[in-house]
């Protein structure tokens, strides 16, 4: 009697691997089919939506009523939204991008998207946001909104400083609402609705120093702002990052956010003070994030730009990290930027010469509580050594950049200066 064949473990493993690969390939094929089907459905919805908008504009009933014939009808056919013509046959390359925003907001349901478009156009006719852009608000109010830098995809970062504005009680409810519309409209001016362009923005809303208790007026304002975003600016704001959030504001908006869809709710991210830099760096690079929020960007900066390379270092808990900046060229000034997410680390800067007979120069030593910029004139070859001590139980991340340029030290300028004597 022949002995039974022994099963080869290696063969069995190979069969299992092939089986897993086959299953993986099958899942990949299904995912590809799902993506292809989704694209097909969206394209079909866009074609249907284009036809419906075209028909409504040419029939002069896009706003829900029959418009005047003649010259007014011709003007109506040039109707625009955010500067983009809505008539598909006009051939503008941004029309499809704008129409897709309404489809996305309504999960590609054409009838609901068409209703939302009508609602938005009616609201713009009543509120007239284009005229708000031309209004003269007080300078102290205008300064509470600004755009600075872009996220990792290229979306503009728009800052709204609500804490100061509420604290000083500068705006009435209606004035505040018009100001927020102004902020959105000015942010939209930084967008491009052409294929491949950046067609959404990020709003960073800072509530630092905001009042301690939410009044009925504030609750009403928050409710109206959320509704305005959802109903009249679909898919234009990628994220609303509400930072330095006090506890009362979190509780208030938990109730307000129940009134909107889950998709719109995901656009609102509430960030406590201790996690501001960490959260913002998920969207923007350090060179695009303002120093006030833990980044390296300074307004009207003459030393660095966003094109200057930024290096990154991870600092493990309870360890010391050393950053070395080469300084081999004499007669130049080296300038550097350093920031650590979360701060609260020991920080020291030194110049270490190559010549063992020269002295090490201690530039500064302190506890880091903010982003640091410093410079040092190089008189002999060596290196700049930055020591960061992380005494916390959590990992920290440091970002830094540096550059050098020829310079003359201040003491030589003073020495060469000889004032003329006047008799």
UniProtKB/TrEMBL annotation:
InterPro entries: CRAL-TRIO_dom (IPR001251), CRAL-TRIO_dom_sf (IPR036865), CRAL/TRIO_N_dom_sf (IPR036273), PATL (IPR044834), PATL1-6_C_GOLD (IPR056794). Residues 129-301 form the CRAL-TRIO domain. PROSITE patterns: CRAL_TRIO (PS50191). It comes from the Eukaryota. Gene3D superfamilies: CRAL-TRIO lipid binding domain. Pfam families: CRAL_TRIO, GOLD_PATL1_C. Residues 18-35 have a biased composition (Acidic residues). One of its GO terms (molecular function) is lipid binding. Residues 1-37 are annotated as: Disordered. This is Patellin-4. It comes from Sesamum indicum (Oriental sesame). The gene is LOC105163416.
């Amino acid at each position: 009697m022949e002995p039974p064949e022994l099963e080869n473990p290696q063969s069995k493993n190979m069969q299992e691997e092939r089986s897993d690969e086959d299953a993986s390939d099958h899942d990949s094929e299904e995912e590809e089919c799902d993506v292809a089907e989704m694209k097909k459905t969206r394209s079909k919805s866009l074609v249907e939506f284009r036809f419906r908008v075209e028909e409504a504009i040419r029939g002069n009933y896009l706003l829900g009523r029959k418009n005047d014939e003649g010259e007014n009808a011709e003007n109506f056919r040039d109707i625009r939204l955010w500067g983009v013509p809505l008539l598909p046959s006009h051939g503008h390359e941004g029309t499809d991008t704008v129409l897709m925003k309404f489809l996305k907001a309504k999960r590609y349901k054409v009838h609901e998207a068409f209703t939302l478009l009508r609602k938005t156009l009616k609201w713009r006719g009543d509120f007239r946001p284009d005229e708000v852009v031309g209004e003269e608000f007080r300078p102290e109010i205008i300064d509470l909104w600004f755009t600075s830098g872009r996220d990792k995809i290229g979306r503009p970062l728009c800052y709204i400083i609500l804490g100061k504005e509420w604290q000083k009680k500068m705006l009435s409810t209606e004035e505040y609402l018009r100001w927020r519309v102004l902020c959105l409209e000015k942010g939209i001016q930084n967008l491009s609705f052409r294929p491949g362009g950046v067609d959404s923005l990020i709003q960073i809303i800072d509530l630092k120093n905001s009042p301690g208790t939410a009044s009925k007026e504030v609750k009403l304002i928050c409710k109206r702002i959320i509704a305005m975003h959802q109903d009249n600016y679909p898919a234009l704001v990628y994220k609303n990052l509400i930072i330095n959030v006090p506890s009362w504001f979190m509780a208030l908006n938990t109730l307000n956010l129940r009134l909107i869809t889950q998709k719109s709710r995901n656009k609102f991210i509430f960030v406590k003070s201790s996690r501001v830099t960490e959260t913002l760096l998920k969207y923007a690079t350090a060179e695009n994030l303002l120093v006030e929020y833990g980044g390296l960007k300074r307004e009207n900066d003459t030393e660095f730009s966003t094109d200057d390379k930024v290096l990154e270092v991870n600092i493990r808990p309870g360890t010391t990290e050393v950053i070395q900046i080469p300084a081999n060229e004499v007669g130049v000034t080296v300038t550097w930027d350093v920031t650590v997410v979360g701060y609260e680390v020991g920080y020291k800067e030194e110049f270490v010469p190559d010549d063992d007979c020269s002295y090490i120069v201690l530039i500064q030593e302190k506890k880091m509580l903010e982003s640091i910029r410093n410079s040092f004139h190089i008189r002999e070859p060596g290196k700049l050594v930055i020591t960061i001590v992380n005494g916390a139980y959590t990992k920290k991340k440091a970002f830094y950049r540096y550059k050098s340029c020829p310079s003359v030290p201040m003491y030589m300028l003073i020495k060469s200066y000889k004032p003329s004597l006047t008799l």
